[in-house]
Amino acid sequence: MADVEDVNKPLFAGLSDVSIAEDIPVEGDIAVPVRSQSGDDEISTLDEPVKDTILRDLKAVGQKFVHVLYPKKSSALLRDWDLWGPLLLCVTLALMLQGGSADSKDDGGPQFAEVFVIVWFGSIIITLNSKLLGGTISFFQSLCVLGYCILPLTVAMLVCRLVLLGSMGVGGFIIRLVVVTASFGWSTFASTAFLADSQPPNRKALVVYPVFLFYFVISWMILTFSPSH
Amino acid sequence: MASPDDLKFQEFEEATDLLAADPGASTLSISSSSAAVSSGDVRLDLSDDEDNQQESSELLGGEKQTSGFWTFEYYQSFFNVDTVQVLDRIKGSVMPLPGRNFVRHHIRNNPDLYGPFWICATLVFSVAISGNLSTFLSNKGDPQYHYRPQFHKVTIAAVAVFLYAWLVPLGVWGFMTWRQNAERQTSAYSFLETVCVYGYSLFIYIPTSILWSIPFGWLQWLLILIAMVISGSVLVITFWPVVRDDTKTTAFATMATIVVLHALLAIGCKMYFFQTEELTVSPSSPTTPATLNHTALITKPQ
Fold first, then answer.
1. The pTM is what?
2. Where is composition skewed (Low complexity) in this entry (chain B) (predicted)?
């Protein structure tokens, strides 16, 4: 054994001094991280009543509505994005815009599908545009912001329909014009408050202009809505 | 912040031709702090992508691209413009000067797709909205007239404008490249530069279409004339240096075709979307009045 060890001695010089029979102090923890009983959370969302789940989602949507109505620079809208709110608003807007009158089939206001396509397709194009220009916001966050900021315009649509129930003359038109213009400004301002920070500084105007055009088109659709008699 | 275009002292035509001959000497925007974005990522990555952009920009005059067309960076290279540059290009399209070739002077080997796309989109909506407004204004006295939003016009306008802005540059570029290969001419423009020129040249129609809603016939025709002169001269000044080396008939035929197609778009839009007081409310088809005016325009002296 000594001869064999002699050959290996230069390589493992220090190792042969250590005797395995002695106590080698070993320190440290060997702990395997176990998700101990945090499975309670998952089990609980499956077990909770459906009412709780729906209410939780509705509360999140409502909270974001409040953020849109009082736009200050908060990241809540961006962090916890969801698309329920935009879907709700888009469907409401499209349903309300749909009742427009028409003499011939294609002379009237936008159909439900047209409003849907304009809102979603427009949001997607604006998001792509902002990303291509070098923005750092993610795709769904941008869709979420643009969709939620349609809320003032939906409120304006409600007001317009109420006004149209009352008077159809010039006075009613002036009221509708003022309301729609105010909510258009509000929507644009709210969405730029959320989106502006994620753009490179010398391209901000390039990103804001399509948002302006998008809400302008929706405002025009709301303003020119004329109900069937 | 001084844009790169402010750094030139005097503009001679030879200089711009030299720039054309050697695309490697392109003047790029130095603000290349574009974030390399992967979708779904919120982090700001400030790695300078300048090498990639420079390569892909100087090769845009040629046929190869550095990144494949399926990557996001390939398309990002077409949006490498700042606000100042876009505004400068719009200004150049509205005020054409005989010495300043739009492609050499304003685009400078950095064609972008932002301008053409959003100018076309704005034009679509401005034509549709102003047309609706002009119909309303010209029928205000009629007690039986009910206001209609006429939303289907947006679809038609969108198809017309976007087809024009993409198919006509394709045709012009294809023709120029074929002539270049057949006759060994000076370099033709790349496809993107052609699309860029056409897109920016449509900008003048946006304020024109808004002014068309005023229902006076003579005013509308005057506006068409002014817009066509400005827009047509941008195109003529841009394409003449490339075409003039060709045979005389081909050169004149090319320029005439470009001008005529541009005029057709303007007149077709006006006839279809806008009514003056003497016409009826029903929208006429865009082809019949366009062919009538086609013969009238061919006799215009060149």
1. 0.72
2. 28-39
Residues A98, A225: Cα–Cα separation, whole Å: 9
Count how many domains chain A has. Answer: 1
B79, B84, B151, best to mutate vs chain A, most A CBs in 10 Å: B151
Nearest CA in chain B to A103: B148
List the 89-148 stretch of B: residues with Cβ below 8 A of A: 114, 118, 121-122, 125, 129, 132, 146-148
Phi-psi label, residue B71: left if phi above 0, alpha if psi -120 to 50, beta otherwise: beta
Residue B225 located in a structural domain:
yes
Is residue A229 assigned to a domain?
Answer: yes
Highest mean pLDDT among B48-57, B199-208, B211-220, B272-281: B199-208
- CB contact set of A110 (below 8 Å; sequence gap of 6+): A97, A98, A100, A118, A221, B149, B151
Residue-wise pLDDT for B146-182, tens only, equals: 777 777 888 888 888 899 988 988 988 888 888 777 7
Q: Is residue B295 part of a domain?
A: no
Average model confidence (pLDDT) across chain B: 72
* Residue B209 is assigned to a structural domain of this protein: yes
**Residue A30 C-alpha, separation from nearest chain B C-alpha, in angstroms:** 35
ipTM comes to 0.72
Indicate the number of domains in chain B.
Answer: 1
Kindly list the distances between the CA atom of residue B193 and the CA atoms of A206, B101, B185, B246, in Å, as whole numbers in the listed order.
20, 12, 18, 20
Per the CB < 8 A criterion, the answer to whether B4 and B29 are in contact is yes
Residue A166 within any structural domain of the chain: yes
Domain range for residue A90?
83-98+106-229
Cβ contact B223:B211 at 8 Å: yes
- The answer to whether A168 faces chain B, any CB pair under 8 Å, is no
Q: Containing H/E element for B290?
A: helix B287-298
Quick: pLDDT tens for A60-92. 888 888 888 876 766 766 777 888 889 999 999
B80: nearest CA in chain A? A133
| Mean pLDDT computed over A19-36 | 68
Would you say residue B54 lies in a domain?
no
